[in-house]
Amino acid sequence: MDKNDKLQILKNAIKAYPNFPEPGVTFRDIFGVFQNITALRAMKDLIVEHILFLEVDLIVGLDSRGFLFGPMICMELGKPFLPIRKKGKLPGKVVQQKYVLEYGEATFELQSDLITNGTRVLIVDDLLATGGSMSAAVQLLKSVAADVVECLVIIELTSLKGRDKIEVPLHSFLKYDD
After folding, report:
1. Residue 102 falls in the annotated catalytic set
2. Which of 19, 56, 149, 173: CA 20 to 30 A from 118?
3. Are 104 and 84 in contact (CB under 8 A)?
4. Which GO terms describe its molecular function (predicted)?
């Protein structure tokens, strides 16, 4: 099966919910992939084919759907996983980064003692929309002297221009304009 076949299988498994969570918004639900083993394998293959030659030391997953992909990538690359979580969810020494949401403000935290100067990081999440959370993750990692090699998402909502806020390379497998 070639890359285009895998992308089509993946795209077919993404469920769309018009007017959710509010009128005019189409919610793209990644969980349809996890209910379809063929789509899950296609997604895993696409991710592995893309990341296999990236030189990274650490995989960082964003709260919470990045936690679904991060460990899968870690096993393929033989690299450790570190979560970035919402405020108050991590023990130990943490650093924080505030960011703006469509409806307010939030804070990400990272256990900073697990990263050394120059650690090469791949950030993963399911979806890039406005770019606020991904941008905050990049800033948070830079604040502890990590080198963010790439941000990787399954879905990108291009009309929201989140990519414009990301200062490092970004790769998305599926792009939607709505």
Report:
1. yes
2. 173
3. no
4. adenine binding; adenine phosphoribosyltransferase activity; AMP binding
